[in-house]
Amino acid sequence: MHDRELAVWRTLMEDGTQCLGEEQYHKAENYFSQGLLKAYKLTVPEIVAFTLRLLATVRVRLGNLEFAEDGFQEALRICQEIQNAKGMAEAWAGLASVSVKKGMIREAAKKYEQAIAVYPCSSPPLRLGMLYADLGQVYATLEDWTRANRAYTQAHEICRDNGFPKGEAELDILLGELCFRQKKRIEASNYLKHACQIFAQIEDMIALSNTFQYLALVYFEHKQMRLAFECQQRAVALCLKFDTRSVFSESCYFLSKIEQFLENYEEARYYVELSIRFYSERDLDLALRYQSLAGLFFLSMDLAKAELYYLKALGLFEAINDVRSSEIYEALASIKEIRERKVEQVNFPDISEAKFQLYGGFTLEALIRLAELYEKQQNFRDALECYWKALAMGRDVEMTTDWIETRVQRVSKRLRRKKLTR
Fold first, then answer.
1. What is the pLDDT of residues 95-108, one digit of tens each?
2. Cα(291)–Cα(301) distance, rounded to whole angstroms?
3. CA distances (Å), 258 to each of 130, 231, 254, 397, in order?
4. Is the dihedral angle over the CA atoms 20, 23, 28, 29 positive or is it negative?
5. Helix spans in 182-224 (H)
6. What digits encode the pLDDT tens for the residues 106-120?
7. Which of 25, 82, 96, 81 is nearest to 54 (CA)?
8. N or C: which end of the chain has fewer CB within 10 A?
9. DSSP designation for 283
């Protein structure tokens, strides 16, 4: 009879664990609840505590935090009575996860510390590494960089010493993120590059793609655009083979932004169009893609296509009542004004029409208009960048640039004033 009950309990646990892994939490809760009833009949404390922990874990996923906390507390009490150190550590870790969900981060840190303190040396070291990683994430949330780094480093060493390369690479990413948040660019990029090496060796292409993209972001934030481009291009190539349409769309969109900084406008347009093609939702992110594409057509003075995509963006912005609608109206007004004006009426008397119409893949008129638009929106950094490019173009074609220099000085002052008031 006892063996039969044990077999039924084991089957319920296996079915529940499979549902938990597949994120079918309500089904998992049902299996574990039935398993708990069987566990009480078996009257084996270790089995009861183990079942309580699994049931509490799935209830954390379902957001039933009070029930989950009660379950972990009962499991802890049982394990303390029978001096089961591994069970105590798991129960403390479960209670820590409840504290995280409740936003009680400092309490969570104390409970993870307690879990690590009672974790037995004879138990699997990789689980201890996971506890250190969880503790590191809690301290990172608290922005306690020293303790977070110490916990992550402990987890990293455990993974490396026990031949778990995937865990080692994942800890490299966490350490890289920690450095990135502290503005330690070189250290962050070194950790991420090491993670890329490991993911390539173990042929985890999805993780490799994500890490290349993270590395590209680090380079992008520090204006190392060529390195950002190389990393993001690799990420896009890998996404195309191994990842979902949405991830591929996001990767192409980021690559388009990098291409714009590198002034490769045709390539930027190609990648944002590709991003739109693979994006399946009609939401804010799609609207931003349309706005970006419209801006690129505006730069090349393809006003018909610029207007088309601004209108597409406007429809989505207005549907979700987003404040960016005003930006679109200003851009459309600029297009209308350009159309109504002939080139001869523009205040560039000393530049030929041929040079005015197209220079380096985009027009001086477009740059000035875009700079004016950014200035109206108080986006002084982008306005200044456009004015500087216009100034360089004007000098190259030997036109009078005093009026552009005046605008550069004006926007520079406003940008400095804005920084001082922060």
1. 999 999 999 999 99
2. 15
3. 35, 11, 7, 28
4. positive
5. 185-201, 205-221
6. 999 999 999 999 999
7. 25
8. C
9. S
